[in-house]
């Protein structure tokens, strides 16, 4: 077993191609239809086949008792790699950040959003090739801000209490109902569905890049992100841990509170070419 949570159980297994990761979701309620989620995962997998810095699930297995999704096993996530010797050099951090932006740009061009970008969902090979993995189209887009258990259940499966979820994905059940009702599938559900946007992924990737360049100092905890959403939390001290001013500016741009001010992944690559990223990339 690699990881267990109330939402999914993650195990390492083997098939004819070698080691794989299997995520198991037990069907607690047989009256709920999982067809649309399975169809969505398979559609995303087919779209991502040509993306070099993203890895979808190889198989989706649906049974009466559970749903299993399978992908290739990689030895290290970015979260583990940051704290493993030999530590990443500055250029390696630049290269990983560049690859993640490139992979995200390619995925967005294909109409695919990730939904749960964090260091645990970034895979890094021994030759420093980075892959966005575990695309989370099956998780809710919007969560109530007054229910931390909902965030922990879906997005904090490792129990770190860090938060890379975009602030616009949290809503106030008392005041935001009318504001976001137009994009909701159901206004009565506590965990609300809607369209993920590229800007949401940009925010999450900005948090990942910040954690990469600050040696595992997360930009936000869950409580800090909610305070940031209200304009009551300043991230300057954490950003100042990033020594390179261009990387610092990139992260600050990506995690702006207003999603309309965040540039696309492709635009970020162009704007910071020769600044945060060498021309050779």
TrEMBL record:
* Gene Ontology annotations of biological process type: late endosome to vacuole transport; macroautophagy; protein targeting to vacuole
Statement: the UniProt record of this protein carries the keyword Transferase: yes
Does the record's keyword annotation contain Kinase?
yes
Highest taxon of the source? Eukaryota
Q: Which PANTHER family match?
A: PHOSPHOINOSITIDE 3-KINASE REGULATORY SUBUNIT 4
One cellular component term (GO) for this entry is: phosphatidylinositol 3-kinase complex, class III, type II
Molecular-function annotations in GO = ATP binding; protein serine/threonine kinase activity
**Species of provenance:** Sphaeroforma arctica JP610
Q: Which Pfam families does this entry report, sorted A to Z? A: Pkinase
Give residue ranges for domain Protein kinase. Answer: 1-281
- Which InterPro entries does the entry link to? Kinase-like_dom_sf, Prot_kinase_dom, Ser/Thr_kinase_AS, Vps15-like
Q: Which keywords does UniProt give here?
A: Kinase, Transferase, WD repeat
The name this protein goes by in its record: VPS15 protein kinase
Q: Where are the transmembrane segments?
A: none
